[in-house]
């Protein structure tokens, strides 16, 4: 049951024990000149020892970056490119990205651009990276506070998914990753959404099967529409406003940190509100989901001045065409409408709706 594998858009993803076998076979067949591993300060302590034990690797070059979104920058790339160069990387080197989405996004981008591209393997260690960031082939960094503005789509050589890494992941980070799994449910099936609601937050390592189903959902979507002309846009559900909220929080020095999944939860509640007003998502269902989400996640106060700044940030959204902001909306679970134009007044109503929600 825990020995799964699938090919996602040309990129094999392997689960648990199967992952370590596949990794060993790959290294035996490839004969890389040098193996580099990119970690952040947390995954160096919490995940590298387990990785070394499971992989049996000894002679590898470890490169460490700071933890967290504020390090997903081109400056960090320059440091890593320099390290690769100074430590003798060549076109036949391998880069392993061991960490959350920041490490896999940035490491993937560094690998795709160093010497016009070297092989890289993603070993996601956060829930969010397992179900989302590490699969699908999108790599990149932020430009200032603007998310993922610089990047490239290229699949990793392989993805190794071992849920045991989750044993050390803080609960708040587990919830952040769960947001993407809830999104996978909303864009495909209510049945999966309901199962994800019962995810064991305290023992995430036991939830390999649910995690794998999320990978399968992402894989199905990405394989059907690799270049994001249509269905892949549904993976951005809740992200139009979610990313703007995340950027606004990144830009505001006095605000406490808001994680990607936490911003996406707010973005999804807002998008559901708009969906019910614009494309006939059931209001009753919307209220039910909003209640589920505010019971699981803290409510974040969004002030009038925040709203203005967030709405202004929408102009940078990647889905924009000809200056128009495009939303992904849902008619029901798994039934979507892409490229929807939404008036600012409706976005304001959605913020009112969010701020009036009460925890049960
Ligand atoms: N490429 C894509 O398709 C895609 C999709 C979704 C999200 N993303 C990106 O992913 C990023 C968010 O990913 P994230 O939530 O993993 O962030 P992250 O990489 O910052 O990891 C979250 C935190 O958990 C720590 N951590 C990771 N694994 C751990 C473990 N096993 N034990 C203890 N601590 C651990 C990290 O050090 C970090 O402090 C964002 O930049 C987002 O834009 C990319
Ligand atoms: Zn996301």
Structural summary, described in words:
- The protein has 14 helices and eleven strands.
- 48% of the residues lie in helices and 17% in strands.
- It folds into two domains: 5-168, 3-Layer(aba) Sandwich (Rossmann fold), CATH 3.40.50; 237-356, Dehydroquinate synthase-like - alpha domain (Dehydroquinate synthase-like, alpha domain), CATH 1.20.1090.
- It has a seven-stranded mixed sheet.
- Helix 7 (171-188) packs antiparallel against helix 8 (190-197) and helix 7 (171-188) packs parallel to helix 11.
- With 360 residues, it is an alpha/beta fold.
- The model has no long low-confidence stretch (mean pLDDT 94).
- The chain binds nicotinamide-adenine-dinucleotide and zinc ion.
Small ligands present? nicotinamide-adenine-dinucleotide, zinc ion
CATH topology of the largest domain: Rossmann fold
CATH class descriptor name of the largest domain: Alpha Beta
Low-confidence parts: none
Mean pLDDT: 94
| Strand percent estimate | 15-25%
Strand order in the largest sheet:
1-2-9-6-5-3-4
Tell me the distance between the termini: 37 Å
Rounded Rg: 20 Å
Can you tell me the number of structural domains?
2
Number of strands: 11
Query: SSE order in H/E notation?
Result: EEHEHHEHEHEHEEEHHHHHHHEEH
């Amino acid at each position: 049951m825990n020995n799964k594998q699938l090919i996602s858009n040309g990129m094999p993803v392997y689960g648990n024990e199967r992952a370590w076998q596949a990794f060993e076979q790959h290294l035996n067949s490839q004969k890389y000149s040098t193996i580099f591993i990119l970690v952040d300060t947390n995954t160096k302590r919490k995940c590298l020892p387990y990785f070394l034990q499971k992989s049996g690797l000894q002679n590898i070059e470890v490169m460490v970056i700071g933890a967290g979104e504020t390090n997903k920058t081109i400056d960090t790339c320059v440091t890593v490119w320099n390290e690769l160069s100074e430590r003798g990387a060549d076109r036949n080197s391998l880069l392993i990205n061991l960490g959350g989405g920041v490490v896999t996004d940035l490491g993937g981008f560094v690998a795709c651009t160093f010497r016009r591209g070297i092989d890289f393997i993603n070993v996601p260690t956060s829930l969010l990276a397992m179900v989302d960031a590490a699969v699908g082939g999108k790599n990149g960094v932020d430009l200032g506070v603007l998310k993922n503005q610089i990047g490239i789509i290229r699949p990793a050589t392989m993805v190794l998914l071992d849920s045991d890494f989750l044993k050390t992941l803080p609960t708040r980070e587990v919830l952040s990753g769960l947001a993407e799994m809830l999104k996978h449910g909303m864009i495909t099936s209510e049945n999966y959404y309901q199962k994800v609601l019962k995810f064991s937050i305290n023992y995430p390592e036991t939830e390999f099967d649910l995690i794998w189903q999320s990978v399968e959902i992402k894989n199905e979507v990405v394989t059907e529409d690799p270049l994001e002309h249509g269905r892949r846009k549904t993976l951005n559900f809740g992200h139009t406003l979610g990313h703007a909220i995340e950027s606004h929080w990144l830009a505001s020095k006095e605000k406490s940190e808001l994680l990607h999944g936490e911003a996406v939860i707010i973005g999804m509640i807002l998008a559901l509100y708009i969906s019910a007003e614009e494309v006939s998502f059931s209001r009753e269902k919307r209220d039910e989901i909003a209640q589920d989400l505010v019971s699981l996640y803290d409510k974040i106060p969004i002030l009038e001045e925040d709203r203005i700044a967030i709405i202004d940030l929408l102009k940078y959204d990647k889905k924009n065409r000809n200056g128009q902001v495009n939303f992904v909306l849902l008619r029901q679970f798994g039934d979507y409408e892409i490229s929807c134009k939404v008036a600012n007044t409706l976005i304001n109503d959605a913020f009112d709706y969010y701020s009036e929600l009460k925890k049960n």
